[in-house]
């Protein structure tokens, strides 16, 4: 069966592009979320230390340029649009432009490899709201499947990890501990999705291709009030604990939960986690995210082709199989409280 599409829509998070954007951006991010204002101001300070500019928008521009090139060479010949949840270009403006250009049905690539409310359902809600804002004639958008176990994502991550491992002195390299890091979320939210299961599976798939390193899945960028439980262990606490145990010399962080080196990677890992490593006598190296790795870009093209052709051949590594194309009604529900 063949599906007709006339565009690709890259759907992402957005980030500030100057000091005056920081607070309004963070207010957009945190609208409706239970996060103390002090935490927001603390995060604002991280952004201000980098001139109020998050690299995420530039990284998405680079991703789109690389994908345009990939589609120009291999097809399908489709225009690529880009819309964000939290900062310009915002999804309603992008969908209005798509309507003006006569686009009727697009395939959506979300910059999240893992299923969560934030990375799946919330983006679908954002698109729906944008369609309502644009009104009649707004394009339909079908989301591409989650790619946490796609060979393209795993192979690109493995290559990035090997680059970071090569920074460790060769005589110590095989003993380096690997920390796979992902954005923490409230435990209640985690109960409504496959986030932890998928993260653990990606980490396993990558680690088995790296050799026999000890490895752990850890979390970063926690934002909730202190009484609310979020996914743990926190990466900085974990490195501190490794330091106390005294038998780990080198740690390689793989930011498996993210696809580009945005502010949460630069600040929470390169600044904070590396500083903690220094304090406890552990050398910390950090692998780059997949970014515009050619295998990651070819994976996006493969996901597009697979969906257009309707083929049954949908590559996925490991036992969990390919993720669904169309989210079931209860996919990535926003659970705010765990029922006991
Ligand atoms: C309740 C859950 C979350 C809160 C609160 C939250 C706050 C928060 N997040 C950022 C910046 C980023 N978050 C990103 C990804 C991301 N965030 C959550 C959850 C919460 N964040 C999840 C589950 C994820 C992963 C899925 C996804 O949407 O990507 C990202 C990366 C986005 C990307 O496209 O790569 C950023 C950047 C801030 C500044 C913030 C509030 C202080
Ligand atoms: Fe976040
Ligand atoms: Fe989902």
TrEMBL record:
Keywords: Cytoplasm, Heme biosynthesis, Iron, Lyase, Metal-binding, Porphyrin biosynthesis. GO terms for biological process: heme biosynthetic process. It catalyses: Fe-coproporphyrin III + 2 H(+) = coproporphyrin III + Fe(2+); heme b + 2 H(+) = protoporphyrin IX + Fe(2+). It is found in: Cytoplasm. It is an enzyme of class 4 (lyase). GO terms for molecular function: ferrochelatase activity; metal ion binding. InterPro entries: Ferrochelatase, Ferrochelatase_C, Ferrochelatase_N. Pathway: Porphyrin-containing compound metabolism; protoheme biosynthesis; protoheme from protoporphyrin-IX: step 1/1. It holds the Pfam family Ferrochelatase. Catalyzes the ferrous insertion into protoporphyrin IX. This is Ferrochelatase. It comes from Gimesia panareensis. The gene is hemH.
């Amino acid at each position: 069966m063949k599906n007709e599409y006339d565009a690709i829509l890259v759907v992402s998070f957005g980030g500030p592009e100057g000091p005056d954007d920081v607070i309004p951006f963070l207010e957009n991010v945190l609208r409706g979320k239970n996060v103390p204002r002090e935490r927001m101001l603390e995060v604002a300070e991280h952004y201000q230390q980098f001139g109020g500019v998050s690299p995420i928008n530039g990284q998405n521009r680079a991703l789109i340029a690389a994908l345009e090139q990939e589609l120009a060479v291999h097809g399908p010949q489709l225009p690529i649009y880009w819309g964000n949840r939290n900062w310009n270009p915002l999804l309603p403006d992008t969908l209005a432009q798509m309507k003006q250009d006569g686009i009727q049905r697009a395939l959506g690539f979300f910059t999240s490899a893992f299923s969560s409310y934030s990375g799946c359902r919330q983006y679908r809600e954002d698109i729906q709201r944008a369609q309502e804002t644009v009104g009649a004639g707004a394009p339909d958008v079908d989301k591409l499947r989650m790619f946490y176990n796609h060979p393209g994502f795993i192979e690109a991550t493995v290559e990035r990890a090997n680059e970071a491992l090569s920074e460790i002195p060769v005589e110590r390299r095989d003993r380096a501990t690997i920390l796979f890091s992902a954005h923490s979320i409230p435990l209640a939210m985690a109960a409504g999705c496959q986030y932890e299961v998928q993260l653990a599976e990606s980490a396993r798939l990558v680690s088995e291709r790296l050799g026999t390193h000890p490895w752990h899945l850890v979390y970063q960028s926690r934002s909730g009030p202190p009484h609310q439980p979020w996914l743990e262990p926190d990466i900085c606490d974990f490195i501190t604990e490794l330091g106390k145990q005294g038998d780990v010399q080198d740690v390689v962080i793989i930011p498996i939960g993210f696809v580009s080196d945005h502010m949460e990677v630069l600040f929470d890992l390169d600044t904070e986690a590396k500083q903690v490593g220094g304090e406890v006598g552990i050398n910390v190296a950090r692998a780059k995210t997949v970014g515009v790795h050619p295998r990651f870009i070819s994976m996006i093209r493969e996901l597009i082709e697979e969906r257009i052709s309707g083929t049954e051949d949908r590559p996925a590594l490991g036992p969990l199989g390919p993720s669904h194309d169309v989210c079931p009604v209860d996919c990535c529900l926003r659970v705010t409280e765990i029922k006991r």
